[in-house]
Design a protein that fits this description.
Elements (H helix, E strand, L loop, with lengths): L2 H30 L2 H14 L25 H12 L7 H9 L5 H10 L9 H7 L12 H5 L11 H17 L14 H9 L5 H4 L16 H12 L6 H10 L2 H16 L6 H18 L3 H16 L1 H11 L1 H22 L14 E6 L2 H13 L3 E6 L7 E4 L7 E2 L9 E7 L11 H23 L6 H9 L1 H11 L16 H4 L2 E6 L3 H15 L8 E8 L22 H12 L1 H9 L9 E8 L4 E4 L7 H25 L11 H13 L15 E4 L14 E4 L10 H8 L1 H17 L1 H4 E3 L4 E4 L4 E4 L9 E2 L17 E4 L3 H10 L1 H8 L4 E6 L2 E6 L2 E4 L6 H5 L1
Parallel strand pairs: 1-2, 1-7, 3-5, 7-8, 10-11, 10-16, 12-15, 16-17
Antiparallel strand pairs: 3-4, 5-6, 8-9, 13-14, 17-18, 18-19
Amino acid sequence: MSRATATASSSTIQSDRTSMQTMIGRALARESVDPISVKIDRACEAACRAIAPAWPLDRSIAVNPHWFRIGMPIRRVAARMALLGDIHVFPSRRYVKQAWTSAQVGPADLEAALSLHDAGANGLSVASCLDALDKDLGFHCLPLLIDVLDTDPLKDTRLSWRQAITHQVSQTCAAYFDHAQADWRPQGNQSLYAFWLDTIQHDHGIGTLMGLPKLGKQLSNLPRTRQDAEQWVMKRLGLPEDVWADYLEAVLLTINGWASWCAYLRWQAELAGQSDEHIRDLLAIRLAWGVIVLESRDDRETALAFARLQKAWGDAHRQITAAESALRVDEVWQSALDLAYQRRLVQHLAYAEGPSLAPVTYDVQAAFCIDVRSERLRRALEAVWPAVQTMGVAGFFGLPISYAPLGTELKRPQLPGLLAPSVEVTDEIILSASTRQSAGRKADQKVARARRDRLAFATQWQSGTRWPGAAFSLVEAVGLGYLGKLFSWTKPGGQPRANADLTGLPSRYRRLARPTLVGLGTEDKVAIAGKVLHAMGLEQDFAPLVLLVGHGSQSTNNAHAAALDCGACCGQTGEVNARSLARLLNEPAVRTGLQVHGIAIPAQTWFVAALHNTTTDEVEGFDLDLLPEAAQRTWARLQGPLAHACDQVRRERAPQLGLDPRLSCAALTNALRTRANDGAQTRPEWGLAGNAAFLIAPRTRSRGVVLDGRCFLHDYDWTQDGDGSVLELLLTAPMLVTHWINWQYHASMCDPTHFGSGNKVLHNVVGGNLGVFEGNGGDLRIGLARQSLHDGEAWQHEPLRLTVVIDAPAAAIEVVIHKHEVVRQLVGNGWLHLWRFTSAGFERYADGTWRPVSLPPSGVEAAA
């Protein structure tokens, strides 16, 4: 044996011995770990896993705040939320009574809902359901340690301890997570818990707010680590082990806004294969407050508080069961509201044009995002020019991309929040149609440098306004030029939408900067193109011009502007995705590669990217100079019908926005643009308010039907989906996104305190993009503002569960349900309704079987 071999062998043996010793050490350590500590750790993790993420303002997407609770029936979740956090899952009884009084929901709907839930067996009737509308729920939120300790007779003269603690923790989080607005930030890799510990020991005002002037002296008793805080408090409380996770979830719900932000950080880390512990730190901070208040009370008060707490939580499971029973009536009313809408939906769908008897050749095909705001424009365009075929597809057009604008450090996702990007898009300078060639790497670098210089200057200019008094001197220095921006807010004009992605680019290059997929070979591009076209159902019969229509909103001084953009593009517009895909599908090499996969795109077919401005209902085309003359002529022919269709949609929307639909086309367009440019406008558009259904079916099932901008529409032909792969994709991606949208609106309306962001007029942005405070403190607000749901006089949204209607064989749908637990949970636990088209009407899926849909007649039909 050589010396080298012997040395290697010796090293290997030594390594094996070390590994064995390590394994033995870990095993002994596991045996020596306090089993109670392990259970506490598991309970803390379970509580943290119950909190759904909330995306930042600049990537704002809709989320079901109960996403990690869908494994339980909806009524059980409602009972738990009511007792753990005073949170309402079902519509309020006040709202339901108004719906009943206004005949929005009628006796036939209520009777059908009672039958649906077999409520008679539980003692419910029409009379008892109506009687319940004048009563409260009959149960109250379970107390936390800080609640039972807060017994000062003078507590009504100050903030409650719960309020004061929420405020202090929230302000700490705002300072810790701010990486955009603050000029001072925590140093190094300090954990959130360590930062809070340092902060609270220098906070000399919190004791006064809480009526505990000597509180500062007790801060030395705080646990030094997150783990110590969790363990100390839970062991001290003495609660039954089976309610630990419930209690800890209730603790997190007191600071749910920041918990949701921390859950987002964990979500993003796990998408990247990493971990994040900020939410555990937040839980430990909130628990550590128990140590502080305990040390501030005498032993007798503490003993009495413990007794009250243990009595309340020792009976928690029975109380949850009782609450679940009491909420049966609210579940029935939720179903009655759903049925009232479903009845109208069925009546509308009965008037669908159906398939054409004669073959149809289309001049233009237009693929729109499934967003409910596209429904009106698709309907209008088809009516104006029958030679246009519209399609509904996911708004990110199937591209799993992140976008890195040329010359910036930014990299943002442009796909649903459920997914992680795997492909990058950046801008490439492409010259005019005469050459259709890239300007080259040197030109790209030159433009990138110019942009960086401009952005750097802007950053320096903005930072000058952040010093005390600098804003005033700066206004004096730049004179009236600075006031122009303020004037444009207060006296808005009819300027068209500005593209923020072009900020800092020299003007002569703005038209030439084209989003382009980078780092991919031809094979990879062909694979992506093939998957996208297959998912779109567009693999044959191509029209000469195929539009890829993304969408985006237009508003000014709006912290929640991204919430009005495309949720499938992670709160961005669909422009980057549409332009990238159009360029990809126009590449000759990609088309050649697609032919091998049986997809033959005719030489005369060209793909064009466009953007639907959902605030003004205008459509903008991109990269038109790269089209050949024939395609440009078709685009020109389309402009008349497109303008007519857009005008029709504007008139349809005008009354809901308080505008006169009889205005001239130019005047109405200008009025909508003016609203969009108004810095004081709290309702530039209604977004997805009113969303209620998702149709996964051929367009013939809904063509010509007025669906009032309330339905998501995804084209799907099951006869072209032999292996069911497209249906599986639709039920596990677009359906989940639409469910998230539906439930964000539902939750923001049913419980605006916990899942709505309050009054827009009072919003203050936190950390540049983290979220908003309503006023100057309290918890971080998540969800939709009241102005996104209510016009000042009436609600513009109905709190309905999504009705998903699929045109596919029952067996194919069942395969997906049985294969995917998340789909099974959403359907089986009552988070949405699942229907399918049949030759005789509709069937609904419930309890593992398909049953004919039998809806109550309308009020007029019932009277007849």
